[in-house]
Amino acid sequence: MLRSIFLRLSKSNWAYRRITGWSVTRRMAARFIAGEQAEDAIRVVRKLNDQGILATLDHLGENTTQPEDARLATQEVLSMMRLIAEEGLRCNVSVKLSQLGLTLDEELCAENLEAILNLAQELGNFVRIDMEDSGLTERTLQCYFHAREKGYGCVGVVIQAYLYRSKEDIHQLSIRQGRVRLCKGAYNEPASVAYPKKKDVDANYDRLAAQLMDCALTATLPIVNGITPPIPAIATHDPQRITFAQKYAESIHLPRNAFEFQMLYGIRRDLQTRLVSQGYSVRVYVPYGTHWYPYFMRRLAERPANVWFILTQFFQRGS
Q1: Mean pLDDT, residues 157-176 taken together
Q2: How far apart (Å, rounded) are the C-alpha atoms in residues 189 and 195?
Q3: Which residues are catalytic?
Q4: I need a labelling partner for 71 at 20 to 30 A (CA). Which of 35, 213, 214, 217 fits?
Q5: pTM for the whole thing?
Q6: How confident is the model over 282-299, as a mean pLDDT?
Q7: Torsions phi, psi of 141, nearest 5?
Q8: Handedness of CA 149, 90, 293, 189 (dihedral sign)
Q9: Closest Cα to residue 138, out of 120, 157, 154?
Q10: Residues whose CB falls within 8 Å of the CB of residue 241, separated by 6 or more in sequence, listed in order
Q11: CA gyration radius for the chain?
C-alpha cells in the first residue's frame, strides 16, 4: 500500500511543489542522486572507476511536454558522452524515450535517439534505453528494434521482471542478440499486466535471469557488423537474486566476465565492492540533474525505512 502511495506521489504536481521545498528532502535525495550538474556526476563516476566499478550516467527527466525540451535533453546526453570520452571514464549512458519525445512525436524521438546512437558509435560508447511504465513498453521495444535494424549495435534495452510479457520479450530480443538489462520494475502497474505479489516477481526474475544467461552462453559469437555478443545485465540489490544468478552461472559454466551485476547509486555500496572483490563486473547507475523528484520518490517506494520520515514531514503543520 505504501509503495503505491509513493508511486502515485511521484506523478503528483502538488506533492512535487511541497516535498521539493523541504531542505531535508534535498539532503536525502543526495544519497541517490549524484548532483544537479554534469560535473557532479563526473566526479562520482571517477570515484566509482577508481574502485573498479563501471557506471551508467542518466540525465534525469521523463515525459517531456514540448519538442524543444526533448531536443535540449538530447543535447545534454550528447554533451555528456563527449565529456565521458574526454575524461577517459569507463561509463556509458542511459536514456528514457519519453524524455526524447516519444509521447509527443515518434519521428522526433527517433531523430533524437539516432543522433545519440551516431555519437555513441563514433566514440565507441554504449546507450541503454530505459524501460518506463507498461503503457510505453511496446513502443519502446519497437524503437529499439528499429535502431537495431538500422545497424546500431551500440544500444541495449531494459526488461522488467514484474511484467507478464517479459519472457516473450526476452525471447524476441535473444533472436536479435539484444543486449538486456533485467530489473524488477519500479512503476505502479495493474494486476492485469504485472505480478502484484513480490514473491511472484522474485520467482519470475530468477526465471528471466536464467533465460538471459542461457542466451549468453549460446551467443559466444565474434563481433559481426559492429554487433557484439549480448552481455546480460542482472540489475538487483536483492542478495537472494544475486546468489541465484551466481549459482546458475556456475551451473552452466558461464564465465564471470560474460555478464554483469548492476545496481543503483547510493544503494548497497558494500555489496557492490564485495562483488568486485570476487571478480564480478559491477556497474552502477548514476542519475543526475534537476528533475530528480520522480526518481527519488520511486526509490522511497522501494525503501520502507524512509516512509515514516516522509509521512511525518508531509502531514506536519507548517512544513
Answers
A1: 96
A2: 9
A3: 130, 181
A4: 35
A5: 0.85
A6: 80
A7: -65, -40
A8: positive
A9: 157
A10: 202, 205, 206, 209, 234
A11: 19
